[in-house]
Amino acid sequence: MELINLVINAKHGEQDALYEIVKRFQGLIKKVARTIYIRGFDEDDLISIGTQSLIIAVKTYDLNSNTRFEGYAYKVIRNNYYNEIRRIARYNHVISLNATIDEDDHEAIDIIEDNYTLEEYMDKKDILKIVSDFLNNLGFQDRELLIYYFRGTKGNIKEYSIKCNKEYFSCIRRKNKLIGELREYLKDYRK
Length: 191
Hints:
By secondary structure, the chain is mainly alpha-helical. 68% of the residues lie in helices and 0% in strands. It has helices spanning 3-11, 15-33, 43-60, 69-89, 118-136, 140-151, 156-164, 168-190.
């Protein structure tokens, strides 16, 4: 079906026509979304804004206009991205932690409680490096099993056993053995 007929049907409330228009314009929306940066928004958010903009374009398109719908839709999508950038920019104030907050020249950073020490940060960083080294020394299947385990989602070992066509309890035993080896590796490393 021609695009203009889909637009006419969508303007009259036909959901299938609107869905087909959205489907046809997904490539354009993704292409434009990749050229836009809005802090705090990921690509899916930008695609969602583009899709909403396309629906607005369908609703507001003047069928008697000499402008082709494709061009009109592109302008609406692009303009809505720019409007979103302007909207976000209004609330984009950044304050330095070194800004003075009173007449005694106290800085904001002076009143923030911090129980986190550099030593704790370095310990965590060291542990991550050790675990990473341990994982890199494992075979592919053992490493994949532990990665499934460390993801921490419910049913992750069962999911792994199904994916690899292995018995669930053998995967559990292997995981427990690998965790034991990791504990020993950490103990040896700390000495």
